[in-house]
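Complex record, three chains
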Amino acid sequence: MEPTPIIVLENVTKSFGSFQALRGIDLTVAKGQKVVVCGPSGSGKSTMIRCINRLEEHDGGRILVNGIELTGAMKNIDAVRREVGMVFQQFNLFPHLTAIENLMLAPHLVRKVSKPEARKIARHYLDRVHIPEQADKYPAQLSGGQQQRVAIARALCMQPEIMLFDEPTSALDPEMINEVLDVMVELAEEGMTMICVTHEMGFARSVADLLVFMDFGEIVEAAPPAAFFENPRHERTRLFLSQILSH
Amino acid sequence: MSFDVSLVFASLPEIVGGIGVTVQLLVLSLLLGLVLAVATALMRISRIPLLAWPALAYVYVFRGTPILVQLFVIYYGLPQFAFIQESVLWPILREPYWCAIIAFTLNNGAYAAEILRGGIQGVDRGLHEAGRALGLSPRQRFIYVTAPIAVRLALPAYSNEMISLLKATALASTITMADVTGVARTIVAKTFAPYEIFISAALVYLAMTWLIQRAVALAERRASRYVRT
Amino acid sequence: MSAVAGWLDDFLRSAVVILEVLLVALAMCVTWGLLGAAAKLCKSRIAFRIATLYTTVFRGTPELLVLLIVYFGSAITLTGIAQVFDPEVKFVDIPPFWAGAFAISLVVGAYATETFRGAFLGVDVGQVEAARALGLGPVHTFFYVRLPQMWRLALPSFGNHMNSLIKDTSLISVIGLEEIMYTAEMATSVTNRPFTMYLVVALIYLAFTSVIVAGVWALERYANRHLETAR
């Protein structure tokens, strides 16, 4: 059975001024696949996934999401953003809205769902991330782990086909990382297509179908976890693994 | 409707003649106001109620009322009192020039006091602690640690206040003074060309504003030379 | 002090005029401020230059002068136009109320432009990114994400602008508006108590600015209520 490709990046390039962040990225992600992207800072990992929902505009190559090509056309961009959810390193929750209001905003405004219906959806996803009791709290009153879980729920309320995670646990205190990773594991087990930029190799090993190592704007190596960790083919991959797995 | 551009420039020399008065008002009020402001700021942050409360009242009143009103109270209002008219200060107090300076000084002093207070309180707690740990006396800490940093912090806001004062000097024209605005009003009364003349006057003020901003930019650069960007 | 008693209702009535001017000027000032900030923040170089010209000119020119230009300038223009139709006309002006409100709103609006611009820039970029990632369009993002956070940042400075506005209303007496300065002048010519009368004016203004300061303080507490961490 040929897995249906849901995200296709073809020779994608991107520069910031004179700095080339992406140098010809080719990647195909199938529906239901979990991809973990790792690499040193500055390697272009964040840039790549931010291109997928047009938070960055790629300069060259093609990006297709669920069959829709990402061009400058607003119609396409809107269509893509409805299918793709994003979780940020800094959470980016709206500080002036309560948790549940954060979740209700986009479904109400973008999918034109009625407020009562939006509230129902919001409650459902707050349950999903195991913090229903925090519904009426403001982000400032929540711990980092709780805020990130609210952020995940917020993205899920739009019922996306794909979830992008940009270093979701990097800004968290160590004791809160697991509560967020647990939610992500559950999401993975339910069949969500995920692309996750992270340094959490334990998570990668247990959840990922494909591990992608990026360096200097290129994909150096892409392999299933077993092959990736036991038999890295490139020297740079080996070097990176030794640095990141040593403690 | 013809706009006589030549009139704008032809009237400039006469208007520029008013700069002397404007600058005198500005400089004197700034200097006197600064002295008043330093004293007031210190009183404001003092823990002695007898010092702090009057300072607070002064700042509150002079920042909460319009300059024009303050000016009128002093120039038109004081002569109401016989004891003022008979006092030794009367020759000064009946001159529009000195009334304007007193009003502007008091007003500027109040605003500058709050700006200085902001600067003083903006100095990091850690620096005070370091000073204490080193054994510096409160007076030494204030002179060598707090004041230099407070000045740097206060400069932007203080430069705005200087420009506000410059603009306020225009009000002196309402009590018959021949500053830039006063001269302009006189010319307009003769020529009935408000646009040209007043725009000419506005250009003069803009030029003075620009000069002040350049001077402050230099001062800011000098004061921030040790700050890592 | 009994001299004041007879004039109390005149003062109160003219104080209301001040409030009316304030409301009109406030509405205009917020408009110029938002327009100016938008011009400075959008991508157009021309808009930026025009907005910068506006802020530079009106922050560097005395309010009194702006008032005089607006009032006398418009009067000359209007009179000229009217005389084309009816040579008998001596003097047509914009009522001092409107000329005054407009003039002071222009000046404070220049300061408000900078305040609003700084406040918009102060809204965390991540917020806007999250909104975009969720699919919110630019209009929704502006009203639901940027504006609510921007006004919280703008509030302290904007309170100062409101105070400036109300104090600037005193200048409009110079072009003949019958507000409290004018009442004080009348009262003085009758009672010969200038100090007392202008003191009353000062107290009325002090009352106004105090209310504004208290109001802004309360608004700041309301706007920041979601930031009080409860841990």
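Note: Chain C has one domain: 2-224.
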